[in-house]
């Protein structure tokens, strides 16, 4: 970074900018085994997976996937040791290492397209929350594996996952027929799981006595005790209340994006309730709240016998909750209730209280782990747009002063040249003394995030780490009618904006860039040069991610409404 700056600014007297943190010494990378060493180590792991005494907890760890990648086993080798790879894959599934499961499944399928256990890759898709991909793969496998009980069993698993209970039951019963022809331990292994899926499907379709028999059959064949206990527990309220309730909820709630939960494109609610009415036609009232944090949200649904519904709830924050005053993460209780409502009486069908993690409003979630292995994460960078808050009072006050540096003492957005307007913002922030500080990334048990103060607080303190600076500039640009973008490169962030032909006819529909950490020390032109050079370098390496604010606004990522 410093060498690049020296080359760009050789003719200028400006001092170098503050560190971006990218020059900090990095820990030495661990020494990895050679390909030959990795092959030998992998052979031992695969051999250890074959016996019934295998220890999945020992065999499956983050290094297992690294070992697989380094060894690069050939198709013939995988096919020759298919039994060991099969059980290694099943261990990966048991340990919820779904990316590793997918890697092994893909290897086995490539080594033997017709006999390489296509269900393994399908199970990886299910674990990674892509059941539709799993069904597509299984549909193709049906052409050459219609009588494969493992394929039929996985179809039952996927249909149960998407709550298609009729299809789940049909696939499970097909598995029972196919599995009856197997011999040895594999027979019981397939049949006990098939009866488990039968039990779930029968339970959800109101066939309670048959579900109890299927549980007993799975248990007799050595079915998973925890799974069967779960089904047995569900049978109790189903018999007592004629209803079956299952819930999902967010384990972590970032309060800075609470206003977006369940509201923006593709988002999930705080709580999702699945309700199957296996009794008579009636009404149900569904309630959810976070104790001391939100109001109680209520939904009333009329559900006919044999009907199923899905209810999404995200209760609004309580007026008494001090959102701004909460400065650190803490635990809270999420309460969920479902009541059967008659004309004169109410009966509680389901009641639960779960502990969840609350993160303060300045915790910006950037990724959420998809699997136990932490090898794949859902990218949440789009939420940075919620920190871009152009209507905050402190932002309006700053711009009222900054416009005295703008052409004709006004900000005209894209109706006039953008570069002088951005320079007016830059020079005003420099005059205010805004400077760069380092702020380490923080981690949460449910994903990664970074503490990022909102622009109003940055203006009050006059210091910002690189992401806060980029967000501040994006906020000020959006407030004056420009189209900003936050640019993310490895370990760093800066800002860009959409230029217009008023800047230069050649710049129409192009983006300009600004290295915001230089605000305190360097001229505006130098910061633009460095920003452009950083973008070009990262873009050439395919390591630049550009978050365009107009597109994120269109997708429903609105600013935090808490001023």
Topology of this structure?
Elements: H1 2-8, H2 35-49, H3 56-59, H4 62-71, H5 75-80, H6 82-94, H7 98-111, H8 118-127, H9 131-145, H10 149-161, H11 165-179, H12 185-204, H13 208-220, H14 225-241, E1 243-249, E2 252-254, E3 271-277, E4 282-290, E5 297-303, E6 308-313, E7 330-341, E8 346-359, E9 363-369, E10 377-379, H15 393-402, H16 418-432, E11 435-436, E12 442-444, E13 447-451, H17 455-461, E14 463-464, H18 466-479, E15 484-489, E16 492-498, E17 511-514, H19 524-540, E18 545-548, H20 549-554
Parallel strand pairs: 2-8, 11-14
Antiparallel strand pairs: 1-3, 3-6, 4-5, 4-7, 7-8, 9-10, 9-13, 12-13, 15-16, 15-18, 16-17
Helix pairs in contact: 2-4, 2-6, 6-7, 6-8, 7-8, 8-9, 8-10, 9-10, 10-11, 10-12, 11-12, 12-13, 12-14, 13-14, 15-17, 17-18
Please give a structural write-up:
The chain is of the alpha+beta class and 563 residues long. It contains 20 helices and 18 strands. The protein has helices spanning 2-8, 35-49, 56-59, 62-71, 75-80, 82-94, 98-111, 118-127, 131-145, 149-161, 165-179, 185-204, 208-220, 225-241, 393-402, 418-432, 455-461, 466-479, 524-540, 549-554; strands at 243-249, 252-254, 271-277, 282-290, 297-303, 308-313, 330-341, 346-359, 363-369, 377-379, 435-436, 442-444, 447-451, 463-464, 484-489, 492-498, 511-514, 545-548. Strands 2-8-7-4-5 form a five-stranded mixed β-sheet, with no helix packed on it. A four-stranded antiparallel β-sheet has the order 10-9-13-12, with no helix packed on it. Strand 15 (484-489) and strand 16 (492-498) form a beta hairpin. Helix 2 (35-49) packs across helix 6, helix 8 (118-127) packs parallel to helix 10 and helix 10 (149-161) runs antiparallel to helix 11 (165-179).
């Amino acid at each position: 970074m410093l060498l690049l700056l020296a080359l760009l600014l050789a003719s200028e007297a400006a001092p170098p900018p503050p560190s971006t943190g990218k020059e900090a010494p990095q820990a030495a990378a661990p020494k990895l085994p050679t390909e030959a060493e990795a092959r030998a180590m992998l052979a031992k792991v695969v051999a250890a997976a074959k016996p019934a005494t295998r220890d999945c907890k020992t065999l499956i760890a983050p290094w297992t996937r690294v070992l697989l990648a380094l060894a690069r086993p050939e198709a013939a080798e995988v096919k020759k040791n298919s039994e060991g790879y099969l059980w290694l894959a099943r261990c990966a599934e048991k340990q919820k290492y779904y990316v590793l499961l997918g890697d092994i499944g893909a290897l086995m399928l490539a080594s033997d397209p017709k006999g390489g256990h296509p269900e393994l890759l399908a199970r990886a898709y299910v674990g990674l929350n892509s059941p539709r991909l799993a069904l597509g793969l299984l549909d193709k496998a049906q052409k050459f594996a219609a009588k494969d009980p493992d394929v039929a069993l996985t179809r039952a698993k996927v249909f149960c996952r998407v709550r298609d209970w009729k299809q789940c039951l049909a696939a499970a019963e097909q598995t029972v027929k196919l599995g009856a022809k197997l011999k040895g331990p594999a027979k019981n292994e397939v049949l006990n799981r098939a009866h488990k899926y039968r039990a779930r499907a029968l339970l959800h379709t109101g066939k309670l006595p048959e579900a109890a028999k299927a549980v007993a059959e799975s248990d007799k064949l050595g079915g998973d005790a925890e799974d069967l206990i779960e089904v047995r527990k569900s049978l109790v309220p189903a018999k007592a209340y004629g209803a079956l309730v299952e819930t999902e909820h967010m384990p972590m709630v970032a309060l800075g994006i609470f206003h977006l939960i369940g509201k923006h494109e593709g988002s999930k609610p705080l709580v999702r309730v699945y309700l199957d009415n296996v009794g008579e036609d009636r009404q149900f009232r569904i309630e959810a709240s976070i104790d001391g944090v939100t109001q109680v949200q209520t939904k009333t649904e009329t559900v006919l016998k044999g009907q199923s519904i899905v209810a999404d709830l995200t209760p609004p924050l309580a007026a008494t909750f001090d959102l701004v005053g909460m400065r650190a993460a803490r635990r809270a209780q999420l309460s969920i209730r479902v009541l059967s409502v008659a004309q004169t009486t109410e009966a509680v069908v389901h009641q639960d209280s779960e502990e969840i993690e609350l993160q303060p409003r300045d915790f910006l979630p950037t990724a959420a782990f998809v699997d136990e292995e932490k090898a794949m994460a859902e990218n949440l960078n789009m939420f940075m747009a919620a920190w871009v808050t152009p209507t905050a009072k402190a932002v309006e006050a700053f711009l009222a002063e900054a416009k005295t540096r703008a052409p004709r003492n006004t900000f005209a957005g894209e109706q006039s040249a953008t570069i002088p307007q951005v320079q007016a913002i830059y020079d005003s922030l420099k005059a205010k003394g805004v400077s760069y500080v380092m702020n380490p990334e923080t981690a949460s048990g449910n994903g990664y995030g970074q503490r990022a103060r909102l622009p109003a607080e940055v203006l009050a303190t006059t210091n910002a780490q690189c992401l806060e600076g980029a967000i501040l500039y994006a906020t000020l640009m959006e407030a004056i009618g420009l189209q900003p973008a936050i640019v993310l490169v490895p370990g760093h962030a800066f800002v860009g904006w959409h230029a217009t032909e008023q800047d230069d006819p050649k710049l129409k529909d192009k983006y300009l860039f600004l290295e915001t950490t230089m605000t305190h020390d360097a001229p505006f032109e130098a910061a633009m040069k460095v920003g452009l050079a950083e973008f070009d370098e990262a873009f050439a390496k395919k390591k630049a991610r550009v978050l365009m604010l107009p597109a994120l606004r269109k997708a429903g990522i609105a600013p935090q409404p808490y001023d």
